[in-house]
Amino acid sequence: MEVKETVIRRMTRLAVEHGAVNLSQGFTDEAPVFDMVWGGVSAMLGGTQEGVDRIESMTLREILAARGSGGNSLDLTLKEVVAGIRNPRDQLNQYSFPFGIPELRHAIADYTEDLYGVRPDPEEQITVVLGASEGMAVAFRSLMEPGDGVVVMQPYHELYPSQAAIFGLVPRFVTLREDRDAGTWRLDRDELRAVAADPAVRAFVVNSPQNPTGKVLDRDNLSFIAELCREHDLFAITDEIYEHITFDGHRHWYLAGFDGMAERTLVVNSLSKTGRSTGWRIGWVITPPERTRRLRAVHDNLVVQAPTPLQKGAVDLLRKERGFFEGIAGDYLRKRDLLIEGLRSVGFTATPPEGAYYLFADYRSVPALAAMSPVDAAMHLVKEVGVATVPGDNFYATGNDGDRYLRFAFCRSVETLEAGIERLRARL
Ligand SMILES: Cc1ncc(COP(=O)(O)O)c(C=O)c1O
Predict the structure, then answer these.
(1) How far is the CA of 68 from the centre of ligand 1 (A)?
(2) What is the CA radius of gyration of the chain?
(3) What is the pTM assigned to this prediction?
(4) Does ligand 1 lie within 6 Å of residue 159's CB atom?
(5) What would the 3-class secondary structure string for 317-379 be?
(6) Within its chain, how far is the Cα of 389 from the centroid?
(7) Domains of the chain by residue range
């Protein structure tokens, strides 16, 4: 398979080209979490742990006194002030331990234990990587060999089949189907059983809360997948980056904590969604200890390490109080409901997502789009209406289930969502 630019990123490019409201790619247009940003900034400026500690406690009076400026100090720019507190010595903008600074690996262990009651060993099990994207890649490469099969649930995040192709893996697809009456998406257990029994298959990719449908796999579904993994000696690679974004009483379950799964689950996670910081590229993988060495070798050889100062910021994010994480979903719930209402008002139908921050909406009942292919519908929206989405067929490899959907991201600010809805109402 030819490796191409992802469709999602192409839609973002088209959005810029056509001045469209960009509801395609999954990133926010709101500020990242402040404590995390400050953690990164103080590391860059402080240079060493002593420097960071010094900056953390410095008052403006001390900064100005150290600068020796006179009465005009109130006219200094922030840049001039900050330049005065830089540390000439440096460690924190340099190469650091390739598997992640120990401080961050300990923070990840504490965070995981606090949320799920299971503590991964920071030395033997946690590797800091460049976002979930690298996390998935090193999991794929270190766990499997060309020709091995990997189970992917469609509709999927295109990362999975694309990376499988890069590493010569063979994706086996199972299909989530929309059950509009029940208001959810369903997995077919017979399909799961059939792929698990394929002797070439080595691993399941489990993404919950799921992109693009918002499906949150419940305990029952995950127990069934765990049972198949144990029965057929398979691994699970869990992509948990939307773990805090669940709605309407749904909750995220930690598959690695299920019976017999600790030794066969690779947990992939990142700051991208939790910190509103998709550009930071900080993530991590939790591996069974005997799988760690190989994964770290792939990681080290490919990218060396994640950015040192941003890892310091990540520590400050993961050490935030529990209430911060519990509060993340509420904001997205309001946005979900705003966008659903807006889309329904112009004819779309959509099962309310149980988690994550995408709406996988059926456009067949929108008169202006009904007869179009998903790509034509998305092109019409981006060029004529001024709203960028992602065509539904991009999320499927087999069958034509995707031919009726467009994906909208509702992680943007309320103003951006309202601007998008207004355009749909006025121009569709
Ligand atoms: C399910 C899923 N996995 C992985 C990623 C990529 O995450 P990261 O930015 O951490 O590489 C995304 C991004 O939208 C996603 O939706």
Answers:
(1) 48
(2) 23
(3) 0.96
(4) yes
(5) HHCCCHHHHHCHHHHHHHHHHHHHHHHHHCCCECCCCCECCEEEEECCCCCCCCCCCHHHHHH
(6) 18
(7) 7-30+327-427, 49-86, 102-324
CA 70 to chain CA centroid, nearest Å? 49
Q: Which residues contact 358 (CB under 8 A, 6 or more apart)?
A: 26, 211, 212, 213, 214, 407, 408, 409, 410
Alpha carbon distance 428, 345 (integer Å): 11
- Bond from prior residue into 209 cis (ω within 30 degrees of 0): yes
Fold observed for domain 102-324: Aspartate Aminotransferase; domain 2 (3.40.640)
Pocket test for ligand 1, best of 270, 271, 303, 408 (most atoms within 8 A of CB): 270
Cα-based angle 344, 353, 207 (whole degrees, multiple of 5): 145
CA distance 195 to 210: 20
* Nearest CA owner, ligand 1 atom 1: 211
| DSSP category for residue 255 | G
47 pLDDT higher than 80: yes
- Ligand 1 within 6 A of 278 CB? yes
> Best substitution site from 7, 127, 133 to test ligand 1's pocket, by max atoms within 8 Å of Cβ?
133
Report the SS3 class of residue 284: strand
Residue 416 pLDDT > 90, yes or no?
yes
In the chain, how many H helices and how many E strands? 17, 14
Going by C-beta distance under 8 Å and a sequence separation of 6 or more, which residues neighbour residue 187?
153, 174, 176, 217, 221
Query: How confident is the model over 245-297, as pLDDT tens digits?
Result: 999 999 999 999 999 999 999 999 999 999 999 999 999 999 999 999 999 99
CATH value of 7-30+327-427 in 1.10.274.10, 3.90.76.10, 3.40.640.10, 3.90.1150.10: 3.90.1150.10
